[in-house]
Design goal:
Blueprint (H helix, E strand, L loop, with lengths): L11 H9 L5 H10 L6 E3 L12 E3 L1 H9 L1
Parallel strand pairs: 1-2
C-alpha cells in the first residue's frame, strides 16, 4: 500500500493554518492542508461535504474502490 499512496505529514504549521480557515471543519482542513505539498490527485473520506470548497477531487472509500475496479 505504501508504494501506491503518499502519506502526508502533519506539523504545527498545518495545524495552525487549519485553525485559521473559516468556516471549514478543522479536521477536514488539516487533511487538506497536509496533503497540498504532495499535490494530491484525490482525497478519500467518508465526509465529502467538508471538502466541497477545496480544490481537490474527493471520493468516498466506496466510490474509490468502484473506480479502481472499473
Amino acid at each position: 500500500m505504501l508504494q501506491m499512496f503518499t502519506i502526508s505529514n502533519v506539523d504545527a504549521s498545518v495545524l495552525e493554518q487549519a485553525a485559521s480557515i473559516e468556516p471549514y471543519d478543522y479536521e477536514d482542513a488539516v487533511q487538506y492542508l497536509s496533503a497540498l505539498p504532495n499535490h494530491p490527485d484525490i482525497i478519500i473520506t467518508r465526509d465529502k461535504r467538508g471538502f466541497r470548497d477545496f480544490n481537490v477531487m474527493v471520493m468516498t472509500p466506496k466510490e474509490f474502490i468502484n473506480k479502481v475496479k472499473s
